[in-house]
Prior knowledge:
The structure is a single chain. The protein is an alpha+beta fold. It folds into three domains: 1-157, no CATH class; 159-250, no CATH class; 254-379, CBS-domain, CATH 3.10.580.10. The chain is built from 13 helices and ten strands. Helix 1 (20-38) packs across helix 2, helix 2 packs parallel to helix 4 (137-156) and helix 7 packs across helix 12 (336-346). The mean pLDDT is 85. Bound molecules: zinc ion.
Amino acid sequence: MGGSIRLVKVLGIDIRIHYSWLLIFGVVSYWVYTDFRAAEYSQELSALLAVGASAALFLCILAHELAHSVVAVRSGIPVRSITLFVLGGVASISREAERPGTEVLMALAGPACSLAIGLACGAAWFATGGNDGEVSAYRDLLFWVASLNVMLGGFNLLPGFPMDGGRVLRAAIWRITGDYRRATRIASVVGQALGWLIAGAGAGVVIAYLFIGSGPLDAYNGLWFILMGLYLSSIASSSYRQVVLREAMRGITAASAMASDFMTVPPGMSLLQIVRDYVEPNRYRSFVVATDGRFQGVVNVENIRRVPDSRWGVTTAGSVMTPAGSVVTATPEDDGLGLAAKMDQFRLDGIPVVREGTVVGVVTRGSLARAVQMRARSEE
Ligand SMILES: [Zn+2]
């Protein structure tokens, strides 16, 4: 996720916060502060509790995501980072579970962790006197953290993909039908329906508030429900599209995704000629260097720019190219998922496809995207 900063590393996982999180920190602090002020606590104590509550929210969401991550890592699925943003947390789990059982364990770990924290805090609240009518700010905070975690756990168990409950539903359908894609589609349709239901309920609350002047909840809660519901239905459909794309990528090969109209230049060609004949008229940015079809290396606009233009006439492609041994290449059989991963890992726009020392094509981000789209469409 862009626009985030790294805080710490826990169990080898980067913990990051997105800037939108600061908004939540502000809103929650303000909200808790006014609540505690209304309960007649002093300004200082209310401020302290407000910051405490925001910090607790942060730690509780983090604990929830860490629980998912620990099970993922234990199941051999690496987790790169956890990012907290305005609507919760996301763990960047490198791939999906291979078996329904693993998916269920991974999905349930988060809500189980939240409910456990909620129960523990609730028990502590009860043990320290609970609701005995005596005023205690710290007990109020304990109660706040307990209900927060119960809500966090409960909400995530809603059976719509990609929420945790939806993942459990998907795993169950996947187990029964053996069809991963169909299971994902059904669970994501349930997710979209749930999102619309929640948004509709929120709209009902707002309308009741506007026309009758009262309702079971206030208008702000209604607005929050609408936002949450719309967000849920949009991630449900986009997560499904992502799954379809990944499946489609797995099903295509470099041979079917490559463009074969790449430009080849001999190693002896001068940079001046490359710029004058290819870069300027056709805006090509990258060239395969080959002698009699044999792959020698790659020269691109960045290589050329490093040479002062007064020397372009006497400098050859072969002397500035990245030699074949250092170029990231693919074989015609490599699958689309692997190609995309390579492009991301090495920040490449294109990968030459080499068969027995000869470049037979180049896979670019554009050609890969077109092949994947065609495949995804033909499967729909
Ligand atoms: Zn979760």
